[in-house]
Write a structure and sequence with these properties.
Blueprint lengths: L6 H5 L1 E7 L6 E6 L5 E6 L3 E6 L4 E7 L6 E5 L5 E5 L7 E5 L4 E6 L6 E6 L5 E6 L3 E6 L7 E4 L4 E5 L5 E6 L3 E6 L9 E4 L8 E6 L5 E6 L4 E5 L5 E5 L12 E3 L5 E4 L5 E6 L5 E6 L8 E4 L6 E4 L3 E6 L5
Antiparallel strand pairs: 1-28, 2-3, 3-4, 4-5, 6-7, 7-8, 8-9, 10-11, 11-12, 12-13, 14-15, 15-16, 16-17, 18-19, 19-20, 20-21, 22-23, 23-24, 24-25, 26-27, 27-28
GO molecular function: chromatin binding
Organism: Phaedon cochleariae (Mustard beetle)
Pfam families: WD40
């Protein structure tokens, strides 16, 4: 019988396994669409791949020359894209089984701060501190589309891969149709500009109805994806280090998970905004990455260590 995610089940989550493969902060994680594998990258220049079913580490790949951040599985098996932290700001397409680069995507002139892959095809979006958003196809090193923006961008595809959202300057969200993005956004939502922090991430809920905005402060926002109306503001987690703490939806879009610089994981109800619980992971450092597995009843959180969480409750 399939367990349903309700408050009681969320509160019962416990750390089932801790991995201590990294010597520095894990800065990005991504589940494969099947939920069977998880990939992470760290400031120690290591990429680590985990088997989520077995709860084991599968492989470590080093990226000493270019560094690694914003890692994402692509649709092809055993491949990933990531941004660079050294040499230049090129995005790199990596074959994981033989640790060889398939293709480079040069163009950005400053640090890439947003990278997302289309859920339906081999295209991806990148946003940089050079105030541009670029659209790419994995099959070509040439940029397919370029948008000049007025500030730091964050981007996300909707679940159907038909539109994308660009958050600009921590104050507006522009929605573009992928088939005609060169015509500019078809709608712009103006929000109150963040005074204390920057927007560092956007995510659509899986039902496509809401957009989650994460920041490098102790605030997370949820807005209506159709009208831009503010729905919830989630607070109470700590971020006193100015790091881009990831906020994530559960697959059913009902719960919001976030890390915290105090090493704990905070959970809110997406509809009501109330705090469901704070999960104590004994993370020794700030938890920058938190994601729920898209297929299995499992949560991953990361500081320098990677923790896999499972519900302690048995479904009756």
């Amino acid at each position: 019988m399939k367990m349903k995610l309700v408050d009681q089940v969320v509160r019962s989550f416990r750390v089932a396994k801790v991995f201590r493969e990294n010597t520095d902060k894990i800065n990005s994680i991504d589940f494969s669409p099947s939920g069977e594998t998880l990939i992470s990258c760290s400031e120690d220049d290591q990429i680590v791949i985990y088997d989520c079913e077995k709860g084991t580490q599968v492989r470590t790949v080093n990226s000493k020359k270019y560094g690694v951040d914003l890692i994402h599985f692509t649709h092809a098996k055993n491949t990933a894209i990531h941004s660079s932290t050294k040499v230049d700001d090129t995005i790199r397409y990596l074959s994981l089984h033989d640790n060889k680069y398939i293709r480079y995507f040069p163009g950005h002139t400053k640090k890439v701060v947003s990278l997302c892959l289309s859920p339906v095809e081999d295209t991806f979006l990148s946003g940089s501190l050079d105030k541009t958003l670029r659209l790419w196809d994995l099959r070509s090193p040439n940029c397919q589309g370029l948008m000049h923006l007025s500030g730091r961008p964050v981007a996300a595809y909707d679940p159907e891969g038909l539109i994308f959202a660009a958050g600009v300057n921590s104050e507006s969200i522009k929605l573009y149709d992928l088939r005609s993005f060169d015509k500019g956004p078809f709608v712009t939502f103006k929000l109150t500009q963040e005074k204390e922090c920057d927007w560092t991430g956007l995510k659509f809920s899986r039902d496509g109805k809401t957009i989650l905005i994460s920041t490098n402060g102790s605030i997370i926002r949820l807005i209506d994806a159709f009208h831009g109306t503010p729905l919830q503001t989630f607070t109470g987690h700590l971020n006193n280090k100015g790091i881009p703490i990831e906020a994530s939806f559960s697959p059913d879009s009902q719960f919001i998970f976030s890390g915290s610089t105090d090493g704990r994981v905070h959970v809110w109800n997406a509809d009501t905004g109330y705090k469901v619980c704070v999960l104590n992971a004994d993370h020794p450092g700030p938890v920058q990455c938190v994601q729920f597995n898209p297929k299995y009843m499992m949560l991953a959180s990361a500081c320098t260590n990677m923790a896999f969480w499972l519900p302690a409750m048995e479904d009756t």
